[in-house]
Every structure is written in structure tokens, then in C-alpha cells.
């Protein structure tokens, strides 16, 4: 049986600008993105890099997203349901002001991602990890961070990219677009206390 395809994924209709190059934010290696790539892994430094121009709309609305984009689309076919699961898991993990802070940060992250086309889930997960770290001692935070992906059923690659984005934030060198957006969302979401 032939796998159904949505016209957006059919390369016969692609234009030259649908394939483009970007620098790896970590090592400067040139990465080739196809417009349907959600993220690529840098061959030089192994960093996962989000496609800055990935069009979430297609995966979100196309009934055939799983066929079009493969397994990875499962994490993107219904972004809202992932956000709901993350919110529910975080409500068990955080309390008081830390939870209130998360609730201020998430709408900012959603708005920034919608404007800039960067993947929402990566930024949301990184923000959750960061707020967990801010609000508990390090061993409790480590445990909560290790448990969150299982509790919310998060795709592994998304979690890996979120960890890399958070590491950028912690190093103070905001080289990738998701890291800059995470920084902004956390800042606009207000500090504790
Ligand atoms: Zn690299």
C-alpha cells in the first residue's frame, strides 16, 4: 500500500529555498536543513539543532503527519496534549511560588515560539528543568528532572535538545535561538520572591 503524502512533504513541489544551510550554534559547522527536518544532529559536535524554519503548522494539522515525518512526528502531531501532560506533571512536582512562576513563564514561551517558529516543546521542557533547579535543592531537583520525561511521556530527542539548550543558558553563552528564547521567557516570567 502506498503511504499517503501531504503536498507540503512531496519534494516534487519543493522550491530551492526549501533546503538551506545554517551554522551549528555550538561549533560553527555548516548544517543542511530540509524544510521538513524538525532538527538535525551536527556531525562534528553531535549537538542537536532545531530547524529555525520548521513549519509546525503542517505537522500539527496534517492528518498524515506521522507518515510524512516519521516516528518523530508523534511528539509533534498534537503539541497541545504534550503541553497538558507537562503541565499536569509539573503541578505534582512544583508548588507555591515556583508553580506560579512556571505559569507565568509558559505563556511567554508559547508566544515567543509561535512568533519565531522555534519548537515550543524544547523551550517549555528546558524552562521546566530550570524552574525545578531554582526551586529545590540539587538532589531533589535531579530526581524531579529525571522523572519528568517519563511522567509526561516526552520524546527522547526533545528532552536531549532541551538539556543542551539549558546547558547553554547555564554557560551564559546564548548561541542558539531556542536558548535566547528560553532566557527571554524566564526573564519575562519574573524571578522568584
Ligand atoms: Zn556542531
Helix proportion of residues, in percent? 40-55%
Q: Indicate the proportion of strand residues.
A: 5-15%
Mean pLDDT over all positions:
82
Shape: globular
Rg calc: 17 Å
Distinct bound molecules: zinc ion
Number of strands: 4
Major β-sheet profile: 2 strands, antiparallel
Order of SSEs, N→C?
EEEEHHHHHHHH
Tell me the layout of helices and strands.
Layout lengths: L18 E5 L6 E5 L4 E3 L6 E3 L5 H6 L3 H5 L9 H15 L2 H21 L3 H16 L2 H15 L3 H16 L5 H12 L5
Antiparallel strand pairs: 1-2, 3-4
Helix pairs in contact: 3-5, 3-6, 4-5, 4-8, 5-6, 5-7, 5-8, 7-8
The structure holds zinc ion.
Zinc ion (ZN) binds next to loops.
Keywords, please?
single chain; mainly alpha; two-stranded antiparallel sheet; 8 helices; binds zinc ion
